[in-house]
Amino acid sequence: MGLHTPVLLDEVLAGLALRSAGRYCDATFGRGGHTAAILAQLGPAGRVVAIDRDPEAVAAGRERFAGESRLTLIRGSFGQLKGLLRAAGWSDGLHGVLLDLGVSSPQLDEARRGFSFMHDGPLDMRMDYESGTSAAQWLARAGEREIADVLFRLGEERFSRRIARAVIAARAQAPIATTRQLAELIAGAVPTREPGKHPATRTFQAIRIHVNRELEEVEAALPQAVELLEPGGRLCVISFHSLEDRLVKRFMRREAQGDPIYAGLPDVPVHARPRLRLVGGAVMPDEPEVERNARARSAVLRVAERIAA
Ligand SMILES: C[S@@+](CC[C@H](N)C(=O)[O-])C[C@H]1O[C@@H](n2cnc3c(N)ncnc32)[C@H](O)[C@@H]1O
Prior knowledge:
The chain is α/β, with parallel strands linked by helices. The chain is built from 13 helices and 7 strands. The protein has helices spanning about 10-15, 35-40, 55-65, 80-85, 105-110, 135-140, 145-155, 160-175, 180-190, 200-210, 215-230, 240-255, 285-290, and strands at about 25, 45-50, 70-75, 95-100, 230-240, 275-280, 300-305. Helix 8 (about 160-175) packs across helix 9 (about 180-190). The termini are far apart. The site of S-adenosylmethionine has 22 residues, from helix 2 and strand 2.
Protein backbone atom coordinates (compact mmCIF):
# COMPACT_ATOMS: atom_id res chain seq x y z
CA MET A 1 0.00 0.00 0.00
CA GLY A 2 3.01 2.32 -0.37
CA LEU A 3 5.75 3.51 1.92
CA HIS A 4 6.50 6.77 3.65
CA THR A 5 9.88 7.62 5.19
CA PRO A 6 9.33 9.50 8.45
CA VAL A 7 11.00 12.91 8.46
CA LEU A 8 13.22 14.23 11.29
CA LEU A 9 12.60 11.01 13.21
CA ASP A 10 15.37 11.29 15.84
CA GLU A 11 14.61 14.96 16.30
CA VAL A 12 10.91 14.24 16.88
CA LEU A 13 11.70 11.48 19.39
CA ALA A 14 14.02 13.85 21.27
CA GLY A 15 11.47 16.67 21.01
CA LEU A 16 8.73 14.52 22.54
CA ALA A 17 11.05 13.67 25.48
CA LEU A 18 9.42 10.23 25.64
CA ARG A 19 8.60 8.59 28.97
CA SER A 20 8.17 4.85 29.08
CA ALA A 21 4.61 4.96 30.47
CA GLY A 22 3.61 8.15 28.62
CA ARG A 23 0.45 8.85 26.60
CA TYR A 24 1.08 10.29 23.14
CA CYS A 25 -0.99 11.46 20.21
CA ASP A 26 0.30 11.16 16.64
CA ALA A 27 -2.30 13.33 14.92
CA THR A 28 -0.92 12.63 11.40
CA PHE A 29 -0.47 8.87 11.34
CA GLY A 30 0.33 8.53 7.58
CA ARG A 31 1.99 5.15 7.26
CA GLY A 32 2.85 5.07 10.95
CA GLY A 33 6.59 5.76 10.73
CA HIS A 34 6.65 8.10 13.72
CA THR A 35 4.08 6.03 15.61
CA ALA A 36 6.18 2.87 15.21
CA ALA A 37 9.30 4.62 16.53
CA ILE A 38 7.39 6.07 19.49
CA LEU A 39 5.89 2.67 20.35
CA ALA A 40 9.34 1.09 20.15
CA GLN A 41 10.52 3.40 22.93
CA LEU A 42 7.48 3.03 25.17
CA GLY A 43 7.10 0.31 27.77
CA PRO A 44 4.03 -1.92 28.25
CA ALA A 45 2.12 0.88 30.02
CA GLY A 46 2.78 3.49 27.32
CA ARG A 47 -0.03 4.39 24.92
CA VAL A 48 -0.38 6.05 21.51
CA VAL A 49 -3.53 7.40 19.93
CA ALA A 50 -3.06 8.06 16.21
CA ILE A 51 -5.30 9.96 13.81
CA ASP A 52 -5.53 10.27 10.04
CA ARG A 53 -8.32 11.55 7.82
CA ASP A 54 -7.19 9.37 4.89
CA PRO A 55 -9.18 6.10 4.75
CA GLU A 56 -6.23 4.32 3.07
CA ALA A 57 -3.79 5.42 5.77
CA VAL A 58 -6.06 4.06 8.48
CA ALA A 59 -6.66 0.77 6.62
CA ALA A 60 -2.91 0.27 6.10
CA GLY A 61 -2.29 1.14 9.76
CA ARG A 62 -4.84 -1.37 11.04
CA GLU A 63 -3.04 -4.05 9.05
CA ARG A 64 0.47 -3.02 10.04
CA PHE A 65 -0.31 -2.66 13.73
CA ALA A 66 -2.78 -5.52 14.14
CA GLY A 67 -2.20 -6.94 17.61
CA GLU A 68 -0.53 -3.76 18.96
CA SER A 69 -2.72 -3.21 21.99
CA ARG A 70 -0.95 0.02 23.00
CA LEU A 71 -2.18 1.80 19.85
CA THR A 72 -5.61 3.31 19.21
CA LEU A 73 -6.07 4.32 15.57
CA ILE A 74 -8.82 6.79 14.70
CA ARG A 75 -10.05 8.04 11.35
CA GLY A 76 -10.85 11.75 11.46
CA SER A 77 -9.54 15.28 11.05
CA PHE A 78 -7.18 16.70 13.64
CA GLY A 79 -9.16 19.95 13.51
CA GLN A 80 -11.50 18.02 15.83
CA LEU A 81 -8.70 16.66 17.97
CA LYS A 82 -10.37 16.95 21.37
CA GLY A 83 -13.70 15.51 20.24
CA LEU A 84 -12.04 12.57 18.47
CA LEU A 85 -9.95 11.73 21.52
CA ARG A 86 -12.86 12.10 23.90
CA ALA A 87 -15.00 9.80 21.76
CA ALA A 88 -12.22 7.19 21.88
CA GLY A 89 -12.06 7.41 25.66
CA TRP A 90 -8.92 9.52 25.79
CA SER A 91 -9.19 12.69 27.86
CA ASP A 92 -6.53 15.30 28.58
CA GLY A 93 -3.25 14.62 30.36
CA LEU A 94 -1.21 13.76 27.28
CA HIS A 95 2.59 13.73 27.42
CA GLY A 96 3.07 14.63 23.77
CA VAL A 97 1.30 15.56 20.55
CA LEU A 98 2.90 15.27 17.11
CA LEU A 99 1.70 16.96 13.93
CA ASP A 100 3.67 16.00 10.81
CA LEU A 101 1.74 18.15 8.38
CA GLY A 102 1.00 17.87 4.68
CA VAL A 103 0.69 14.78 2.53
CA SER A 104 2.34 11.37 2.66
CA SER A 105 4.39 9.70 -0.07
CA PRO A 106 1.67 7.16 -0.92
CA GLN A 107 -0.81 10.02 -1.39
CA LEU A 108 1.59 11.80 -3.76
CA ASP A 109 2.72 8.68 -5.58
CA GLU A 110 -0.66 7.08 -6.29
CA ALA A 111 -1.91 8.56 -9.58
CA ARG A 112 -5.52 7.81 -8.66
CA ARG A 113 -5.34 10.20 -5.66
CA GLY A 114 -4.78 13.08 -8.07
CA PHE A 115 -2.22 15.01 -5.99
CA SER A 116 0.64 15.04 -8.45
CA PHE A 117 1.29 16.57 -11.85
CA MET A 118 3.96 13.88 -12.33
CA HIS A 119 1.33 11.14 -12.67
CA ASP A 120 -1.83 11.40 -14.72
CA GLY A 121 -4.94 10.69 -12.71
CA PRO A 122 -8.35 12.03 -11.74
CA LEU A 123 -8.02 15.56 -10.37
CA ASP A 124 -9.04 14.80 -6.79
CA MET A 125 -6.41 15.86 -4.18
CA ARG A 126 -8.59 15.12 -1.16
CA MET A 127 -6.89 13.37 1.75
CA ASP A 128 -10.34 12.12 2.74
CA TYR A 129 -11.85 11.32 -0.64
CA GLU A 130 -15.13 10.34 0.96
CA SER A 131 -16.04 13.90 1.92
CA GLY A 132 -15.60 17.49 0.80
CA THR A 133 -14.98 18.91 -2.65
CA SER A 134 -12.43 17.48 -5.07
CA ALA A 135 -10.01 19.73 -6.95
CA ALA A 136 -11.92 19.07 -10.19
CA GLN A 137 -15.24 20.01 -8.59
CA TRP A 138 -13.78 23.18 -7.14
CA LEU A 139 -12.17 24.21 -10.45
CA ALA A 140 -15.48 23.58 -12.22
CA ARG A 141 -17.41 25.95 -9.94
CA ALA A 142 -15.11 28.64 -8.56
CA GLY A 143 -15.05 32.12 -10.04
CA GLU A 144 -11.96 33.50 -11.79
CA ARG A 145 -11.22 35.90 -8.92
CA GLU A 146 -11.48 33.16 -6.31
CA ILE A 147 -9.17 30.84 -8.25
CA ALA A 148 -6.58 33.59 -8.75
CA ASP A 149 -6.78 34.51 -5.08
CA VAL A 150 -6.23 30.91 -3.90
CA LEU A 151 -3.25 30.41 -6.23
CA PHE A 152 -1.69 33.67 -5.12
CA ARG A 153 -2.29 33.25 -1.40
CA LEU A 154 -1.63 29.52 -0.96
CA GLY A 155 0.84 28.92 -3.80
CA GLU A 156 2.54 32.34 -3.92
CA GLU A 157 2.00 31.98 -7.68
CA ARG A 158 2.77 35.27 -9.39
CA PHE A 159 0.97 34.23 -12.57
CA SER A 160 -2.20 33.41 -10.63
CA ARG A 161 -4.43 35.64 -12.77
CA ARG A 162 -3.21 34.22 -16.05
CA ILE A 163 -3.71 30.68 -14.80
CA ALA A 164 -7.19 31.49 -13.48
CA ARG A 165 -8.12 33.02 -16.84
CA ALA A 166 -6.82 29.91 -18.64
CA VAL A 167 -8.88 27.66 -16.33
CA ILE A 168 -12.07 29.59 -17.07
CA ALA A 169 -11.40 29.45 -20.82
CA ALA A 170 -10.56 25.74 -20.76
CA ARG A 171 -13.55 24.67 -18.66
CA ALA A 172 -15.91 26.44 -21.08
CA GLN A 173 -14.75 23.85 -23.65
CA ALA A 174 -14.57 20.73 -21.47
CA PRO A 175 -14.35 19.90 -17.74
CA ILE A 176 -10.81 19.88 -16.28
CA ALA A 177 -10.90 16.35 -14.98
CA THR A 178 -7.31 15.07 -14.86
CA THR A 179 -3.99 16.13 -13.35
CA ARG A 180 -2.36 16.08 -16.78
CA GLN A 181 -5.00 18.40 -18.26
CA LEU A 182 -4.43 20.90 -15.47
CA ALA A 183 -0.62 20.63 -15.61
CA GLU A 184 -0.60 21.23 -19.38
CA LEU A 185 -2.99 24.12 -19.10
CA ILE A 186 -0.75 25.78 -16.51
CA ALA A 187 2.41 25.13 -18.54
CA GLY A 188 0.71 26.92 -21.45
CA ALA A 189 -0.40 29.88 -19.31
CA VAL A 190 2.84 30.58 -17.43
CA PRO A 191 5.29 32.62 -19.50
CA THR A 192 8.54 31.92 -17.59
CA ARG A 193 10.07 28.95 -15.81
CA GLU A 194 11.60 28.73 -12.33
CA PRO A 195 14.77 26.65 -12.55
CA GLY A 196 14.24 23.06 -11.40
CA LYS A 197 10.53 23.61 -10.76
CA HIS A 198 7.61 22.38 -12.84
CA PRO A 199 5.36 25.36 -13.67
CA ALA A 200 2.40 23.57 -12.06
CA THR A 201 4.12 23.12 -8.66
CA ARG A 202 2.68 26.23 -7.02
CA THR A 203 -0.82 25.79 -8.41
CA PHE A 204 -1.03 22.15 -7.32
CA GLN A 205 0.19 23.09 -3.84
CA ALA A 206 -2.37 25.90 -3.58
CA ILE A 207 -5.32 23.80 -4.72
CA ARG A 208 -4.33 20.97 -2.39
CA ILE A 209 -4.11 23.29 0.61
CA HIS A 210 -7.43 24.86 -0.33
CA VAL A 211 -9.53 21.72 -0.93
CA ASN A 212 -8.20 20.10 2.25
CA ARG A 213 -8.59 23.33 4.30
CA GLU A 214 -5.08 22.63 5.55
CA LEU A 215 -4.34 25.95 7.23
CA GLU A 216 -7.76 26.07 8.93
CA GLU A 217 -7.19 22.55 10.25
CA VAL A 218 -3.82 23.48 11.73
CA GLU A 219 -5.22 26.66 13.25
CA ALA A 220 -8.01 24.66 14.88
CA ALA A 221 -5.73 21.85 16.10
CA LEU A 222 -2.93 23.82 17.79
CA PRO A 223 -4.91 25.27 20.74
CA GLN A 224 -6.64 21.92 21.28
CA ALA A 225 -3.27 20.16 21.40
CA VAL A 226 -2.08 22.60 24.08
CA GLU A 227 -5.23 21.99 26.13
CA LEU A 228 -4.74 18.23 25.91
CA LEU A 229 -1.15 18.34 27.19
CA GLU A 230 -0.33 18.08 30.83
CA PRO A 231 2.42 20.34 32.26
CA GLY A 232 5.76 19.08 30.92
CA GLY A 233 4.05 17.54 27.85
CA ARG A 234 5.53 18.35 24.46
CA LEU A 235 4.04 19.68 21.22
CA CYS A 236 6.05 18.83 18.08
CA VAL A 237 4.99 20.23 14.70
CA ILE A 238 6.67 19.57 11.35
CA SER A 239 5.70 21.98 8.52
CA PHE A 240 6.59 21.74 4.86
CA HIS A 241 5.97 25.25 3.57
CA SER A 242 6.32 28.76 4.85
CA LEU A 243 2.60 29.53 5.25
CA GLU A 244 2.21 26.61 7.63
CA ASP A 245 5.46 27.23 9.47
CA ARG A 246 4.59 30.90 9.99
CA LEU A 247 1.31 29.88 11.55
CA VAL A 248 2.99 27.40 13.90
CA LYS A 249 5.78 29.81 14.83
CA ARG A 250 3.35 32.63 15.62
CA PHE A 251 1.09 30.35 17.63
CA MET A 252 3.93 28.99 19.74
CA ARG A 253 5.39 32.45 20.34
CA ARG A 254 2.04 33.87 21.36
CA GLU A 255 1.42 31.00 23.75
CA ALA A 256 4.91 31.40 25.19
CA GLN A 257 4.38 35.10 25.87
CA GLY A 258 0.89 35.18 27.26
CA ASP A 259 -1.53 38.00 26.51
CA PRO A 260 0.53 41.21 26.01
CA ILE A 261 -2.34 43.30 27.45
CA TYR A 262 -1.29 42.10 30.92
CA ALA A 263 2.47 42.53 30.37
CA GLY A 264 4.13 43.91 33.52
CA LEU A 265 0.95 43.70 35.63
CA PRO A 266 1.14 41.80 38.92
CA ASP A 267 -2.10 39.84 38.55
CA VAL A 268 -2.47 38.01 35.27
CA PRO A 269 -5.70 36.00 34.92
CA VAL A 270 -5.21 32.32 34.15
CA HIS A 271 -6.52 32.57 30.57
CA ALA A 272 -3.90 35.24 29.76
CA ARG A 273 -0.85 33.43 31.18
CA PRO A 274 1.73 31.70 28.96
CA ARG A 275 0.89 28.05 28.37
CA LEU A 276 4.01 27.04 26.44
CA ARG A 277 7.77 27.24 26.75
CA LEU A 278 9.69 27.12 23.46
CA VAL A 279 12.18 24.25 23.28
CA GLY A 280 14.99 25.37 20.95
CA GLY A 281 14.40 27.01 17.60
CA ALA A 282 13.45 25.70 14.18
CA VAL A 283 15.01 22.29 13.44
CA MET A 284 15.80 21.38 9.84
CA PRO A 285 16.95 18.02 8.44
CA ASP A 286 20.69 17.63 7.96
CA GLU A 287 22.26 16.99 4.55
CA PRO A 288 22.43 13.18 4.84
CA GLU A 289 18.69 13.06 5.59
CA VAL A 290 17.86 15.25 2.57
CA GLU A 291 20.12 13.05 0.42
CA ARG A 292 18.31 9.95 1.63
CA ASN A 293 14.86 11.48 1.40
CA ALA A 294 14.30 14.42 -0.96
CA ARG A 295 10.86 15.01 0.56
CA ALA A 296 12.51 16.05 3.83
CA ARG A 297 14.05 19.05 2.04
CA SER A 298 11.57 21.68 3.16
CA ALA A 299 10.72 20.24 6.60
CA VAL A 300 10.86 22.47 9.68
CA LEU A 301 10.25 21.08 13.17
CA ARG A 302 9.21 23.28 16.09
CA VAL A 303 8.92 22.03 19.65
CA ALA A 304 7.26 23.57 22.71
CA GLU A 305 6.50 22.36 26.23
CA ARG A 306 3.26 22.86 28.12
CA ILE A 307 3.77 24.77 31.33
CA ALA A 308 1.42 25.04 34.31
CA ALA A 309 -0.74 28.14 33.85
C1 LIG B 1 3.36 13.81 6.20
S1 LIG B 1 2.14 12.58 6.40
C2 LIG B 1 2.54 11.85 7.96
C3 LIG B 1 3.52 10.72 7.85
C4 LIG B 1 3.75 9.97 9.14
N1 LIG B 1 4.34 10.82 10.16
C5 LIG B 1 4.63 8.74 8.91
O1 LIG B 1 5.74 8.71 9.43
O2 LIG B 1 4.20 7.84 8.21
C6 LIG B 1 0.72 13.51 6.83
C7 LIG B 1 -0.51 12.66 7.10
O3 LIG B 1 -1.43 13.48 7.82
C8 LIG B 1 -2.71 13.30 7.31
N2 LIG B 1 -3.43 14.56 7.54
C9 LIG B 1 -3.15 15.76 7.00
N3 LIG B 1 -4.01 16.68 7.44
C10 LIG B 1 -4.84 16.03 8.30
C11 LIG B 1 -5.95 16.45 9.10
N4 LIG B 1 -6.37 17.71 9.09
N5 LIG B 1 -6.53 15.54 9.88
C12 LIG B 1 -6.10 14.25 9.91
N6 LIG B 1 -5.08 13.79 9.16
C13 LIG B 1 -4.46 14.68 8.37
C14 LIG B 1 -2.53 12.97 5.85
O4 LIG B 1 -3.63 12.23 5.37
C15 LIG B 1 -1.22 12.19 5.85
O5 LIG B 1 -1.47 10.81 5.93
